[in-house]
Amino acid sequence: MIRRRRMLAQLGVVALLGCAPSAAAEAERLVRVSDGGTPMGTYMMVTVYASDEATGRQAIAAAFARVEEIEAVTSHFREGSDLSKLNRAAGGPALPIGKELWTILRRCLEVSEETGGAFDATVGPLVALWKRTWKVGKAPSDAEAAAAKALVDYRAVRLAPGEPRAQLLKQGMGVDLSGIAKGYAVDRALAVLRERGIPAALVDAGGDICAYGAPPEREAWLVGIRDPSRPGKILPKPLRLLDRAVATSGDYEQFGAAAGRRYSHILDPRTGKPVEGMTSVTVIAPDATTADAYATALSALGPEQAVAFAEKRPGIEVMVISQRNGEARTLRSKGFSRLEVTPAGSN
What we know:
Layout (H helix, E strand, L loop, with lengths): L7 E3 L10 H9 L1 E7 L6 E7 L2 H22 L7 H7 L6 E2 L2 H16 L9 H13 L5 H8 L7 E3 L5 E4 L12 H15 L4 E6 L2 E5 L8 E4 L14 E3 L2 E7 L4 E4 L2 E4 L2 E2 L4 E2 L3 E8 L2 H14 L1 H9 L5 E8 L2 E6 L15
Helix pairs in contact: 2-7, 7-8, 8-9
């Protein structure tokens, strides 16, 4: 379930029609401020429109500070994080955890249930196994794969309903939040910007993107999706993003190899193996937490099931680029194309 996503964000270029004079005057006073950093093992860019540069930079600094708080809790690379403590206690009694981790785990279990286990945050043992596989260049044995898969089961996570306590029922279990934590951090960063009165903002954490408001004299932000067939390029039709999030999961940049075979780094928790044929899955959702988790899950579901899943859920759209018999094909949910912007002059 671990993967990295990369998308290109750019300012909206669609004119905001019918703008009242007072709104236009207000727009003229806004200043664009951007800054980047490398929290959570990825590059994060925050862009805001504020009344002045100092206000914008203070708000961005507060957003990054909030993301750092989340990383301190959710990183399995940090020995002292709540997540690391929970993983070390696997098989033992329930453990007090912070409200932040409890909230994320609760959302993980919800997504696991609705995707039939295509998303499963207890995928940690499988992630570790396949990382070793790619490092030594040798596929795991059936026994190794079976042993790791036996520890992957979201139903073996217990959360106390009224207090932040959690329990992993099987010794050796390990929670890995790579498929949801960045999206959650984007949402919380945007919440900080809203609280500080920023009228329009976009946050991009390694391809998990969410935006609210719109740049001055524009009706939305535009987000370009990386073209998996052309490194460094984006697809011809960018997305119009307003009060929504988008996340892309794909194996075109991050993958592993063993015994001369190329493997996707996206793992299917249900089979214990890397997914096959799913080049790129782009999910649009009301919030980045959902977009992040769904992009992971729908990669495991496959093209047709991914589209069917999205079309049953209001506010969710998906585009899947896959490979079948050596040929690329693209499937979209019914509403996805309504959010695509056709460049001027094209048919």
